[in-house]
Amino acid sequence: MDTVIALVVVLSLALLWVVAAVHKIRGFEVFAVVLADYRLVPARATGACAAAVIALELGLGICLLIPATRSLALAGSALLLVAYAAAIAVNLHRGRRFIDCGCAGVAGHQALSGWLVARNLLLAALALAAMLPVPARPLIWLDAITVAAAVGAAALLYAVSNRLIANGPDLARLRG
Questions:
Q1: pTM over 0.85
Q2: How far is the CA of 105 from the CAs of 21, 95, 155, in angstroms?
Q3: Using the 8-state DSSP alphabet, how is residue 141 labeled?
Q4: CA gap 110, 129 in Å, rounded
Q5: Between 20 and 30 A from 15 (CA), which of 21, 63, 103, 134?
Q6: Which of 84, 62, 79 is nearest to 131 (CA)?
């Protein structure tokens, strides 16, 4: 994998984690309710678990930016994304499609779907792919522009795909 591609994945994941953590911090009470709706942790542990999730996401985002901790943060990112996919899959299996996934923060409700499972597994695979050996080469100014543009495009693609997934049930109802 080229250095630029690996850097785009790393910076995109770092942005994802930091933004997700900030959304959860801004709406901590809402996030705690969303987490409780998953029914995967005891009710009395929901607040502590919500705080731990926020700390983990923020920690992963920061550690991805530090070369010495990057590999561990990539592995942790993959593990957390698989855990999120599993939590969604368990609730889909239980028939609980109506609960909020917690993906949109305080911005709005996004019901669980198989697409969210697939998205999280794809992101986990990207995190693992970024752990592959990267041949050392000096980065030039054009690489910096490419990385910045690609991270911006990845953030936009993530936001658009989230909106499409969130609107999927409404679109299906409109189609009949």
A1: yes
A2: 9, 23, 16
A3: H
A4: 28
A5: 134
A6: 79
Domain ranges of the chain: 3-175
Q: What is the pLDDT of residues 90-117, one digit of tens each?
A: 999 999 888 888 876 655 678 899 999 9
| Span 44-99, pLDDT tens digits | 999 999 999 999 999 999 999 999 999 999 999 999 999 999 999 999 999 988 88
Task: Give 140's Cβ-side CA count (13 Å radius).
Answer: 1
Q: Are 77 and 130 in contact (CB under 8 A)?
A: no
**Tokens in use for 73?**
């943060």
- Could you count the other beta carbons within 10 Å of the beta carbon of residue 42? 9
Identify which of 14, 61, 54 has the alpha carbon closest to the alpha carbon of residue 31. Answer: 54
CA nearest neighbour of 117 among 153, 154, 89: 89
Residues forming beta bridges with residue 111, ordered by sequence position: 100
